[in-house]
Amino acid sequence: MEERTEEGHTQENGGSDCAARQPRTSPCTSLRMFLVALSFAYFAKALSGSYMKSTITQLERRFDIPSYLIGVIDGSFEIGNLLVIAFVSYFGAKLHRPKIIAVGCVLMSIGTFIIALPHFIIGRYEFETSVRWVVNSTLNPSPCRPDSLANLTEDGTLPQVPASGCEGESNLSMWIYVLLGNVLRGIGETPVQPLGISYIDDFATEENAALYVGCVQTISVVGPVFGYLLGSLCAKIYVDIGFVKMETITITPSDSRWVGAWWLGYLIAGVITLLSAIPFWFLPRSLPVSRPEVPEKCTPEQTSFIKGSPLLKHKYSADEHTSFIEMAKDFIPTLRTLLAHPVYLVYLCVTIIQLNSLIGMVTYKPKYIEQHFRQSASKANFLMGVINIPAVALGMFSGGLLMKRLKLNIMGAAKFAFGTSLIGYILSLFFFAMSCENAKVAGVTLSYDNIEKISYDKHPLFTDCNSKCVCSSSDWDPVCGENGITYVSPCLAGCTTSAGSGKNTVFSNCSCVGVAGNYTASTGHCPQKDDCDRMFPYFLALSVITSFIISLGGTPGYMLLIRCIKPQLKSLALGFHALATRTLAGIPAPIYFGAIIDTTCLKWGQKRCGGIGACRIYNTTAYRIAYLGLTLSLRTISFIICIPGFILLSRQLKEEERSAIHGALRNGGTELEVLRKEELVISNSDQPHHPSENSTDRQTRL
């Protein structure tokens, strides 16, 4: 049997064969191979990115930094994108895209390893405790120290706390390495999305492109499932596992001072990312363009028409080689043309605001579950991985499938994305009703007389029952009294004696726990059973439903971006869209979300050598209002901007249709005849489609 020649090549004699046939290719040169490789790269980058978000509380506690600084670290990934994305998207589209993606994956891997580096340089983790000043003592110290042993300084600290650990305080600035590693991760991730998606869209049929993109986007959401599960596993393991005796550790994973083995997950993610780079080195620069199948017998006129078919108008030809100088000269005019597109600009504004809401919400959602519903970091990450993220993956895949089945045009995709987002927004309003009471902490959320009283000041920590003790208001070593109230430290609970060791330590003769002065307290927070426990399952259920509905519009919305612009602007449009969203959403959102969350902190941790560390307890009500209120306010603004967007999109489609009709009339009806031939060719090659349906689709594309 005769070997097929490259698709699109026409025999000169114009004979019976169209010769629009493809060469026999190896699996590595197929579009499916690229799809698998790109999906794995998406999985790797999504895994490491979600693992970063699962470790924000661990990093806060390990480096003693507030939430806004964690936002800076998280946003540094977008800074890396910002540095190179415009040039990678524009010039990379004209170069060898698979190899550029491979280089990016290698850089991501190196950046991930750098993030884990501080653990191997910094000293052992020393968590905050009120008895840390007692060294080499065989007797249990008295938490309530007599007046003659110490005098408080003006800021409430104990002067005899040893300063021997202060030389290691500079080690806490090692979080800079985490930031730099995340920047490098951002640089490496840059080419994966714009070059990968445009590669698929160039060499896949228009009908399959949406499904392929949906598959890739789905895999990118499956990655966070494993990322959060990895975060859950590592959060259970103590940070210095293997180097300390666990029986000497007095805190549990539910304690606000606990730090898990955050570094371990980054090593695993780095290896996976490095492996994802391998397939791209063996993929070709371009593939045969998928074109409408035609009968074995066709006329030269039909063959010529298929080569220049308007069905392929959004495809970019990789064979059109352009010099670097010419590309550089065309960059500014091309960018100016792109920014003059009104529909693209409105789409850009809407997605920037929506992503501000989404990024801020996702970044601090595990922290919200921890603080508001009093869950451990491990459980919060586990729930994000097995409940919330799969719903998002299913929604994105279903959205791509529905777009193919319903054959949504540009306007249909826009309406579908808007509708799903609006329904999710309405359902999200019910989160405000799912409130939890503040934890009962004496001197912080209620008085020592068990009267609810929120205090952002450290002075209410002192009262008559602990007046005989000289305590530090900066310590955070919570104990649970027999009366069900948590006290900031054994000293502030008025405890004079203690017995046992580690987690089994029991404090007795606690004057603040009972009037008789013979009540006891144990280490850790008091467990609270209230409406919050019954509310949590409803929160999870509503979270799953809203995540699924909102993500349904993800793929149609993304395809709207691809289809509303000219093919030669596609890669630049995708790259500039990523640039703008990372600059105006990815970078600032975690920072100002974290800064607003910091304002709800009731008790800050204390660094060894002075200065505030990570927050220990938040005002639950204020946290909920700030977190949810900011998220939904941003969505409200985006919906308002969508109104002129629909008007502009409708005008653009009408103008394109009108221009096509006028052009056909000027050519004496020849273009209309060409359109009829297109319908005839497609109907002959794809019988389930009727000419009327193809005519409708053609008008939509115009």
From TrEMBL:
Residues 34-654 form the Major facilitator superfamily (MFS) profile domain. It is found in: Cell membrane. Gene3D superfamilies: 3.30.60.30, MFS general substrate transporter like domains. Its main location: membrane. Residues 1-22, 683-702 are annotated as: Disordered. One of its GO terms (molecular function) is sodium-independent organic anion transmembrane transporter activity. The keyword Heme does not apply. Residues 1-10, 687-702 have a biased composition (Basic and acidic residues). It catalyses: 3,3',5'-triiodo-L-thyronine(out) = 3,3',5'-triiodo-L-thyronine(in); L-thyroxine(out) = L-thyroxine(in); L-thyroxine sulfate(out) = L-thyroxine sulfate(in). The chain crosses the membrane at residues 31-48, 68-93, 100-122, 263-283, 344-362, 382-402, 414-434, 535-561, 573-597, 625-649. One of its GO terms (biological process) is sodium-independent organic anion transport. It is a multi-pass membrane protein. Keywords: Cell membrane, Disulfide bond, Glycoprotein, Ion transport, Lipid transport, Membrane, Transmembrane, Transmembrane helix, Transport. Residues 459-514 form the Kazal-like domain. GO terms for cellular component: basolateral plasma membrane. NCBIfam families: oat (TIGR00805). Belongs to the organo anion transporter (TC 2.A.60) family. This is Solute carrier organic anion transporter family member.
